[in-house]
Write a structure and sequence with these properties.
alpha+beta, 107 residues, globular, 22% strand
Length: 107
């Protein structure tokens, strides 16, 4: 179960997506697994500007109109933060999360 701080951030991400994309966003889904959708390791803190931080991210699963919100492990979180464009890691994360969403929805 996400902390209150993460829930607030999730609400903000969802509201921003709805404002920007309107009716394309029909819902949201939080990946609550313990394993990183990028590499499979345990989700945990990363160092950001010398402090511990969590990498909270999101993308739109357009086929379903769902904003998928997720956390990463520190290693993948650092890679995503440093990326200047989409990387193979982004594609792997999205593939794994789309599969997880479809599996949970029973499709």
């Amino acid at each position: 179960m996400p902390s209150n701080e993460i829930k607030e951030m999730m609400d903000m991400l969802y509201a921003q997506a709805q404002m920007r994309f309107g009716s394309l966003i029909k819902g949201r889904w939080f990946y609550d697994g313990n394993d990183c959708p990028g590499c499979g390791k345990k989700i945990g803190a990363m160092k950001y500007k010398g402090k511990d931080a969590m990498s909270l991210n999101s993308f739109i699963f357009r086929d379903h109109g769902v904003l998928i919100i997720y956390l990463l492990c520190g290693k993948c979180g650092n890679k995503v933060v440093r990326a200047t464009s989409d990387t193979p890691l982004h594609a792997e994360i999205e593939k794994n999360l789309k599969q997880g969403f479809i599996k949970q929805m029973g499709h």
